[in-house]
Amino acid sequence: MNFDPEEGAEFHRLVPLATLFPLTVEGGLPAGAWGALEAGECIRADDPRQGYGIATGERSGGLVVIDVDQKNGKDGAASLAKLPPLPPTLTVTSPSGGLHLYFEHPGRFQSNAGKLGPGLDIRAEGGYVRIPGSPHPRHPGRFKIARILPPALLPPAWADMLPRQGEQTAHVPAPAGLDVEPDELRARLVRLSKGRHGPIWESWRKVARGERFVRVAPNAPEGGVDTHLQAMFAALAREWPDVSEGSFSTLLGPSFGHLRCDDLAAGNPVYSLADMEKKWTRARSYATGLNAKAKTAEDFARGLVESTQGALPMIVAHTGHYYVRPPEPGAEYVGPKVRTDLWLTCRDVWGDAGPDVYRTTAKGAVVRMSPDDLVETHGRSVDAVVHDTSAPEPAIDGRSLVLPAAAVVLAPAYSAPVERWLRACDPSGSLEDWLAIVTDLKYAAPALWLTGSGGVGKSLLAAGLAKIWGGIPTPMAKAFGTFNDALLRCPLVEAAEEIPKNYRGYQDTEKLKEIITETERKVNEKHKPIRDVLGAMRVILSSNNTNLIRNSGDLTADDAAALADRFVHIRIPSSARDTLPPARTIQDTWIDGGAIAKHALWLAETRKVPFGPRLRMAPHASYLRRLFVVQPGAGAAVAQAVYTWIVQTAASAKGPEMPWSISGDIVCTSAEAVLRKIADDRNKPSPRAVGQALQRFAPNGRELDGRWPVHVDLVRTWAASEAFGNPRTLEQALERLNA
């Protein structure tokens, strides 16, 4: 798995003072001597499979990372819950299930493991962590940003708990270098070169012992040892840039004498000590000036992306299928094509401007290239072909061909009429937040559920947004079906007034939950190979009321909350109808003309939407949490029984009778008492179903003194969803009972 440069670039924009260095492919350990890097220095990896580490502490702007582990029997989240609260901050998820919480603080803290609790590690001075986009060495997947925020300031309560290394001191190499005693220099050089292999560090170990460190060949060209010397100086200056030229010359003394003797014996020009000092000065200047060489966050981020872009072959072969790239820049691959169609496809796609599709035999005859010849001459084979909804253009990622799916075809543009309608639909701004992340398909997001009367534009929104990708919304029935290739053309899935049913004839809410949260799926198209697609979908539900989703009767309160948290629910007022233009303008300008789609893209550029706890934005579904509790199974019957009891008891002179009672907004009762309030007909629920519903209604799912507590908010929610009774009658009854 390769490093994700887009994720790394986003991280570096949030932490611009980062000191970054590559990690090894095997094991994920630092690939070099990262401990001597200067503040803000960034070393680029040579292999796209390498991840990156960030040095924590003073060298990255006072960075403190709280590593919350969830493995090996350690529950870091539980340990974290026992400590003082932390403010929202940059948060990164680990493929192993852990979290990295990034903070800043001017103090210098010691790195430690487990001192604040099991599963809690502190990465500060002398530590490092893997940055987002890096693959995990032992778990499948990459580190990902879960909350896009700059690192917050570490709270004082936490700063007081962490052991300090002393007061902060900025390390700035002295321009003239430091004068160091020869014995100390040699000792430092021995320590520095310990454990390092290769001819460069072997030469430095010889220098520390005063031995001959390089041999000069007779009749070597002028400067014959330049390459080796420059490599030696560059390696040492990167690790040790604060030594003066005079101290360096003293260090070289005995070994330099051997070098001059070798030069004389070989009849070559002799290096002077001044020559050596000049080389060291240039190497040291380069090492200390790295930070000034355009190492800005944007430059480095751009470099990360460019460094992973392999040259795109004209043909890509994968398991008997072929993809052909047109010669025009930025063109998408044509395919998959079978072997027998490859030559004709290449000829038609390339035309006269592309590579040659003929070859000349040994006898001079001109013949068609075979499929194998075409691939060998103009292409390559890969192990996988992946479609990615967040990929802007085709790319080679290691041994995979990454193809963009559902490419954006419009440019952003602000629309005042569309904005006026959106704000009439939802003054809170949650609808505009959702539109701002509709194209951020790297991350799963809550589904948008629009309810309201007819004519307010519920289906209009999906039709307009689909033009972002140049098509129409993918019906949910097709997204759930066997042949779901429509998702490659439009990742916006729509369901109007009906959720597809499963094989048992019930609403397929499990499939709905999957398509909302998954970021990988298989796409099946007739007569084509099954393809892997990366990236999330966006789901829009529209209905006149909230009866669109019906859950099973054994749904628990936790299940109901988990389902509700997958939605941004907007109840559109009827007044939004007044902000819509004539039907012809809606079709010609808002939908076909792309006004809605372009405005959504403009929101994506101008509106910053924070991450939610699990998805790309926080849910907006407090009403749904209550609705999903009262809606399934016997919930409606129980809510109606409690409603009836409240109204009847308030009108009676007797007052509440056991087991019924009321205190504020809490009604306590029993399953038997509720059953007596439900009419005896064929739809009457069983005692078991009533008990399940009351357990779902009760806070924490527990009885209170042998009776079930029911919050009146649930009754209000049910009555509003079913348009049952008069809300004012219920409120007046509650006032009388609580008087």
CATH class wording of the largest domain = Alpha Beta
- According to CATH, the fold-level topology of the largest domain is Rossmann fold
Q: Kindly report the average pLDDT value.
A: 80
Q: Summarize the main sheet.
A: 7 strands, mixed
CATH superfamily of the largest domain: P-loop containing nucleotide triphosphate hydrolases
Number of strands: 33
Beta-strand content:
15-25%
Broad shape? globular
Radius of gyration: 34 Å
Number of alpha- plus pi-helical segments: 25
Class by helix and strand content? alpha/beta
Low-pLDDT segments, ≥5 res: 167-176, 290-298, 301-310
**Overall CATH architecture of the largest domain:** 3-Layer(aba) Sandwich
Question: Helical percent range?
Answer: 25-40%
Number of domains: 5
How are the secondary structure elements laid out?
Blueprint: H1 5-14, E1 20-22, E2 52-55, E3 63-68, E4 70-71, E5 74-75, H2 76-81, E6 91-93, E7 99-104, E8 108-109, E9 112-113, E10 120-123, E11 128-130, E12 144-147, E13 152-153, H3 156-161, E14 164-166, H4 182-193, H5 199-209, H6 226-239, H7 245-266, H8 273-288, H9 297-307, E15 315-318, E16 321-324, E17 334-338, H10 342-350, E18 358-360, E19 366-368, H11 371-378, E20 379-381, E21 384-388, E22 395-397, E23 400-404, H12 416-425, H13 430-436, E24 447-451, H14 458-465, E25 474-475, H15 476-480, E26 492-496, H16 509-517, E27 520-523, E28 531-534, E29 538-543, H17 557-564, E30 567-571, H18 583-591, H19 595-606, H20 622-630, H21 635-651, E31 661-663, E32 666-669, H22 671-677, H23 687-697, E33 708-711, H24 712-722, H25 727-737
Parallel strand pairs: 7-13, 15-20, 21-23, 21-28, 24-29, 24-30, 25-26, 26-29
Antiparallel strand pairs: 1-2, 2-11, 3-7, 3-10, 4-5, 6-7, 6-12, 8-14, 9-10, 15-16, 16-17, 18-19, 22-23, 27-28, 31-32, 32-33
Helix pairs in contact: 1-9, 4-5, 5-6, 5-7, 6-8, 7-8, 13-19, 17-20, 20-24, 21-24, 21-25, 22-23
